[in-house]
Design a protein that fits this description.
Length: 306
């Protein structure tokens, strides 16, 4: 797989700049929790947002809606969760307290891709080819970037410690996927992971913002259905060097996807499922070298920790 190599002086300048700058919405379990893992699950019949401890215990359902509530992301301070929902008839970003109460809608433009929180507590989300930033209460909505011609932005992850965003663009062909880095104001956009045969999926920054964890289908397979055969998790430096496969203990005929680091960076939580997609993914945890793979949640997707 090809990756871009940044010029050392240019990258140093970039990092220096960044461092300087019927069912209803009533939650079924409104008791506050200090859980630091949130994720989506279809265990109740449709996609809802849940939280748990990072070992999978203490499970709480936070949304209860006939629509699909998906892809939750914890705020930097851990007091709010942003997520995507189509409860208005189209995908928008919603925000709620960590116990599921006080659900509000800060976005108004549509939000087809993932959302995430910048390190200073703003929400970034995608709508078609545009990338927006907005305050948690919906004020100061600003378009900060546009995707290359003919492409849309989709998966977004923000560094928890630096003003950096990693965002995936996708073309008309579902495998046409490129990951860009940019600052949280949309400037300095540059390629980190160039489009390659097979699918690439965004993941999570290390707590210090120096590396990005992502998924890539090493089989290089491409077909009209969008199927993936052998997704592995990789860890790459944000200067494009040091690309390392950490899914060496992954069972065959399965896919590892959508990883997140635990808050202290000592473990990785991720999705794994059979590549025939006969069941919803489960959540697993493993060490940074890929060892000690342990299932912690049955039926879980798009995990996030703070």
């Amino acid at each position: 797989m090809k990756t871009s190599a940044f010029l050392p002086l240019a990258f140093a300048a970039f990092m220096s700049l960044l461092i300087g700058c019927s069912k209803d919405d009533t939650p079924t379990n409104p008791t506050p929790t200090n859980s630091r893992l949130v994720f989506s699950s279809t265990r109740s019949g449709n996609s809802e947002v849940y939280s748990s401890n990072t070992d999978g215990t203490g499970l709480l359902q936070l949304t209860n809606n006939l629509a699909s509530d998906e892809s939750p992301r914890l705020s930097p301070t851990g007091d709010k969760i942003a997520f995507n929902s189509n409860r208005t008839g189209r995908q928008e970003v919603f925000v709620m307290n960590v116990d599921g109460t006080n659900q509000t809608q800060p976005s108004t433009t549509g939000a087809e891709g993932f959302c995430d929180w910048t390190n200073d507590g703003k929400i970034v989300y995608s709508s078609g080819p545009n990338l927006y930033k907005v305050n948690r209460d919906g004020t100061n909505l600003t378009k900060i970037a546009s995707a290359p011609s003919g492409k849309n932005f989709t998966e977004i992850v923000c560094s928890p410690s630096l003003p950096i965003i990693a965002v995936t663009s996708i073309g008309g062909w579902g495998y046409d996927r490129t990951v860009y880095l940019m600052s949280t104001d949309g400037s300095d956009m540059r390629v980190l992971l160039q489009d390659a045969p097979g699918a690439t999926f965004n993941g999570s920054f290390t707590p210090d913002g120096s590396k990005l964890l992502y998924a890539y289908d090493v089989s290089g397979h491409e077909e009209g259905s969008g199927k993936q055969y052998d997704d592995h998790l990789f860890l790459i430096n944000v200067d494009g060097t040091g690309n390392t496969d950490i899914s060496k203990y992954k069972p065959s005929s399965t896919n590892d996807k959508y990883p997140t680091f635990t808050a202290n960076g000592s473990k990785i939580i991720f999705c794994n499922n059979s590549n025939d997609e006969s069941a919803f993914p489960d959540l697993w945890t493993m060490n940074l070298d890929g060892s000690n793979r342990t299932k912690i949640v049955t039926n879980g997707f798009a995990p996030n920790c703070r």
